[in-house]
Amino acid sequence: MSQTGNLPSQVPKPSETLGYQIIRWCQKYIVHPDGDRAGEPWQFTPEQLRFVLWLYAIKPDGSWKYSAATLRRAKGWGKTPLLAALAIVEFLGPCRFSHWDAFGLPVAKPVPLPVVQIGATALDQCEQTIDFIRGMLSESPAESEYGLEIGKSVIQFKSGKPGSIKPKATAGRTNEGNRPTFIVMDEVHHWVASNGGPDFYQVLKRNSEKTRLAGSRWISTTNAYSPTEDSVAQRIHESEMVSQGFWLYDCVEGPLAVEDLRNAAKVRAALVKSYGDASWADIDGLTQTILYDRTTPDSTYCRFYLNQIAESSDGWMSKSEWDACFSEDDPIEAGDLIACGFDGSIRGDATALVGARLRDAKLFVLGVWERPENAHDDWEVDVLSVEAAVADTFKKYRVAWMYCDPPYWQENIGRWALEHGDDTVFEFWTNKPLRMTQATERFRTAAMVGDLRHDGDYRLTRHVLNAVTREVPQGTLIQKDSPRSRRKIDLTVAGILAIEARADAIADGRMTIRRSRVVGF
Prior knowledge:
Helix content is 35%, strand content 18%. The chain is an alpha/beta fold. A hairpin with a 5-residue loop joins strand 3 (96-100) and strand 4 (106-109).
């Protein structure tokens, strides 16, 4: 299956997770809420089992391996029922490390004061998850043995014992100060700025972190997001907490190029992969819908059914086009002959430095300085860090040509030209439409015909996919989706300048290796 997450392919050992005890507890205490198996003991699918086992994986000291988790799967795969089961586990079941038994296996215990929150941007969005929870508890062994009151919006103990599962919706600062033990965030691809989703996410995350040492965590589910919406789903996916492996991220995509959306066999095969072992999914019906229902944009099918991140129609380059340029062969090495592109800012946008190897146009990131998510209003790019990166680039590589966008950095660029040669470091004003449209078109053409490569750096990929087109009389330019957008494109601009610098270096004959003449005596 096409994987874009960090969920390990194998399962952890019994000594490495609390998950096996949790699975047995679920089979004993909760039931299937509906369908042909309604009322029968709950069973996870194999893919759900693997996720649960890794979600509850622990370190040797009993702390969590992952401090948060996200499940990104196709629409109808079974994300919400899985969330409902986990909410019940966190409310009643053995889900915190207690001690090691005589065989070296971990023993789990319930949360002493469970406060489980079902987060959404509106209360009615919590209802589906709450309804699943009620269905799993209704006439179940858990309902009678634990003495539960499940008929109200808040699920709690009849005895008045502290603890609950309750919905939580966007309400600004009124949510600050809560101390939840587990937070469920469903469908975070809908959590966008217009409904307060990103701010609400930050509040919930901060609340969870207050008791992180006691095991409090959050979990989110999502369909593939639209990169033009800057949703919470996108922010989580692009977080270094995911790329560095601190947050668990489970995702399976159905691999299918946009041009194959009219090929029945390929569409069906991609759906089979994206839905995995969700046996209830109507693969034939979905295949028919994708093939013949033209009332829905193709990007919607890619996102919701194939679990692919789909760009807007005005996106400059599609994910499949950019992925086709990826090459892990022949990595960049110290001493390589390269060209560089530099796009600088001070506060608003990012500052980016990108290299392109002369002999094969392979792009790689030399440095990027982006405003952190929770930075103060007076945050500025670390100029000394940028200076150090430029100096290190000239020490580590043979730089044949460097193009730099001058605004805010003219003094620095002038100094670089003095230090490294004014026949190597040049200004390139990206606000001159004719020259920039030509450079932009050359970059895209090189990508389309396979003359450009990249090393798969996720930061460069993110910036390339963030870029949207803008038509001007001279041709096509790229820009952010809105002037104040957080979705930066500066690495893309630096990449365009690097490819342009490479072309001019080659035209100037700098690919030729100058050899010293040996004189004999």
